[in-house]
């Protein structure tokens, strides 16, 4: 372990980002990398590997040398993907968590002219009109889909789920009344600010100062309904703990830099730091919780034969 500490880093560190260059996460990761580089004493190079719903980072890390010189940005959705599909990798066994970095905000939204002024209004109407509520998400099994299910299944609400390909399509459908509402990440911000949609509540642990009048689902009596789709940094499994410790220390300082925090704020993301141990525990807890919810939704992958 001492030798690993003395020899690391011996060359530039690559960070695999499973999204296209120029996107929100990519841009904030580049700033994080720039802040980390002088602390590491080596360049930190972003390598974009988009595709497969952001899951390519896991097999690439699995195949990388476990020496700390290749790490990755890991969205929580890769763990869910492994529950829903048969894949040739296991994010729990193949990754060594470094730290959780950030998360996004999710909200329950309705058209601006909707008669629903609160979550209670929407739920009450849906209970009285089984199967008539039409809500949209950004795709089957996405965080927005699971967040909706978390609330509605507690009331045994039958509803019509309309999956969209992305935020723009879904928000347009809500704003124009094609659907009665839906859950989306903070890409909803400009639609709310222009008065095209109404934000009924958010799925964060605490109220957001940008939308101080929007209650949290926790406040409304749904203690488990906290959905933020966090992401963190991870290395290949087998990376020496001493190297993980160095990486954690460097990126901890970098993520709390003013420049990085300001970059997150520009894209409606929050700093949501967890240390190495707590990050691993949070991931395992999320897996157990989502496994139960996905089973209720009939979205768990069938046992391998």
Element layout with pairings:
Blueprint: H1 2-7, E1 13-17, H2 24-40, E2 44-48, H3 57-63, E3 70-75, H4 77-84, H5 91-94, E4 95-104, E5 106-111, H6 119-128, E6 133-137, H7 143-152, E7 159-163, H8 167-175, E8 181-185, H9 189-193, E9 197-202, E10 231-236, H10 241-255, H11 258-266, E11 269-274, H12 276-296
Parallel strand pairs: 1-2, 1-3, 6-7, 6-8
Antiparallel strand pairs: 3-10, 4-10, 4-11, 5-8, 5-9
Helix pairs in contact: 2-10, 2-11, 4-12
Can you tell me about this structure?
The chain is an alpha/beta fold. It folds into two domains: 2-103 and 229-296, 3-Layer(aba) Sandwich (D-Maltodextrin-Binding Protein, domain 2); 106-202, D-Maltodextrin-Binding Protein, domain 2 (3-Layer(aba) Sandwich), CATH 3.40.190.10. It is built from twelve helices and eleven strands. Strand 1 (13-17), helix 2 (24-40) and strand 2 form a beta-alpha-beta unit. The protein is globular and about 65 Å long. The N and C termini lie far apart (41 Å).
């Amino acid at each position: 372990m001492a030798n690993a500490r003395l020899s690391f880093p011996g060359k530039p560190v690559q960070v695999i980002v499973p999204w296209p260059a120029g996107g929100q996460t990519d841009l904030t990761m580049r700033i994080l990398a720039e802040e980390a580089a002088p602390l590491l004493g080596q360049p930190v190079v972003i390598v974009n590997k988009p595709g497969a719903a952001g899951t390519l980072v896991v097999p690439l890390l699995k195949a990388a040398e476990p020496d700390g010189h290749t790490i990755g940005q890991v969205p929580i959705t890769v763990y869910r993907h492994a529950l829903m599909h048969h894949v040739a990798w296991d994010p729990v066994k193949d990754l060594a968590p470094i730290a959780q970095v950030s998360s996004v905000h999710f909200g329950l939204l309705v058209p601006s002219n909707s008669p629903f002024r609160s979550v209670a209004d929407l739920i009450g109407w849906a209970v009285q009109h089984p199967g008539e509520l039409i809500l949209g998400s950004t795709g089957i099994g996405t965080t927005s889909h699971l967040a909706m299910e978390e609330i509605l299944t507690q009331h045994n609400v039958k509803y019509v789920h309309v999956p969209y390909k992305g935020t723009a399509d879904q928000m347009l459908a809500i704003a124009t009344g094609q659907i009665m509402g839906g859950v989306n990440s903070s890409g909803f911000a400009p639609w709310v600010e222009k008065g095209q949609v109404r934000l009924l509540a958010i799925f964060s642990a605490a109220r957001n100062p940008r939308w101080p009048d929007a209650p949290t689902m926790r406040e409304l009596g749904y203690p488990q309904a906290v959905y933020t789709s966090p992401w963190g940094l991870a290395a290949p499994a087998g990376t020496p703990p001493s190297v993980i410790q160095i990486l954690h220390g460097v990126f901890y300082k970098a993520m709390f830099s003013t420049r990085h925090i300001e970059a997150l704020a520009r894209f409606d993301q929050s700093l949501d730091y967890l240390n190495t141990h707590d990050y691993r525990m949070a991931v395992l807890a999320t897996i157990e919780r989502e496994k139960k919810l996905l089973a209720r939704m009939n979205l768990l992958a069938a046992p391998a034969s």
